[in-house]
Amino acid sequence: MNRDALVSQAGSRLFVGLLLLVVGNVLAGALGSYVAVSVGDSTGAVLGLLAYLLAVAPVLYVAAERLASAFWVVAEGAVHAANGAN
User: Fold this and answer.
1) What is the pLDDT of residue 85?
2) What are the tens digits of pLDDT across the range 4-61?
3) 85 in any annotated domain
4) What is this structure's pTM?
5) Of 22, 25, 63, 73, which residue is the least packed, with the fewest Cβ within 10 Å?
6) Cα 60–16–77 angle (5° rounding)?
7) Residue 42 belongs to what domain range?
8) Per-residue pLDDT for 86 more than 60?
């Protein structure tokens, strides 16, 4: 794979990972807040936090996987560049 393709692939994975992180966190926060306000008192706060964590966990996993994949592509490109320089 050439350098331009590696940069493009890493950039798209990084963008998707960061976008998932931001959007997922906002939506999970809205869900958690809605549950907390709907139930009320301290039980609502606990249930809201639980709803937030359950909603954000899969998003964080996918975002972390995308970000790690992007950094892997960058590292792979650096290794190829170092091998080509020798």
Assistant:
1) 61
2) 777 788 788 888 888 888 888 898 889 888 888 988 888 888 888 898 888 888 888 8
3) no
4) 0.68
5) 22
6) 105
7) 25-71
8) no
What counts of helices (H) and strands (E) characterise the chain?
2, 0
Q: What is the 3-state secondary structure (H, E, C) of 35-73?
A: HHHHHCHHHHHHHHHHHHHHHHHHHHHHHHHHHHHHHHH
Q: How many domains does the chain have?
A: 1
The verdict on residue 66 lying in a domain is yes
- 44 or 3, which is more confident: 44
Q: What is the DSSP secondary structure assignment for residue 1, as one 8-state letter?
A: -
| Residue that the structure tokens 């091998």 belong to | 83
Select from 70, 56, 58 the least CA-distant residue to 17. Answer: 70
pLDDT at 74: 82
Sequence-distant (6+) residues with CB within 8 A of 3 are 77, 81
